[in-house]
C-alpha cells in the first residue's frame, strides 16, 4: 500500500502583518494630530482675531526668540536666505513663504527677513499667528 503525501506550499501568515500595519496607522494618526507647531521650535506666536488658513505646501521661514533663522529645519544666516528662497522658487515659481516669528522678535529683524525673501524673488508672503480665543458674547474685548 502506497501512501501519497501532498506537499503543502509554504504560506505567509498575513494576520500579524495586518495587525502591525493597523498599529502604525493609529500611531501616526494620533501623534500627527497633536503636532501644532510644525517647526518643532519653542515659539510664542503673536495672536490675531482673523487669521486665514494657508495651504500645507508652503516654505516655512522661522525666526526664534534669539533671532536665528530657519528655512524648514535648516538653520541659515540672513545673508544666505535669498539663495534658499531662489532655490525654492526654481522648484515652484508660485511658492508661498510663511514667516513664523516669535513674539519677542523685533520689528527690525522681521523686516530684514521679509527683505531677504523679497531679494531672493519671493512675492507671496504670509505671517504665521495663533488664533485669538473667541470673545464671550456681550463682553467688552
Fold and architecture overview:
It is a single chain. By secondary structure, the protein is of the alpha/beta class. The protein has a domain at 47-131: 2-Layer Sandwich (Nucleotidyltransferase, domain 5). The chain has three helices and seven strands. It has a five-stranded mixed sheet, with helices on one face. It has a two-stranded parallel ribbon with strand order 1-7.
Largest sheet: 5 strands, mixed
What is the H-and-E element order? HEEEEHEHEE
- Shape descriptor reads elongated
User: Termini distance?
Assistant: 97 Å
CATH top level label of one domain: Alpha Beta
What is the number of E strands?
7
Number of helices: 3
Low-confidence stretches: none
Radius of gyration, in angstroms, nearest whole number: 25 Å
- Percentage of residues in DSSP E strands: 15-25%
User: Given the helix and strand composition, which structural class is it?
Assistant: alpha/beta
In short:
The N and C termini lie far apart (97 Å). The protein has helices spanning 15-33, 81-91, 107-119; strands at residues 47-48, 59-63, 69-71, 74-76, 96-101, 124-127, 130-131.
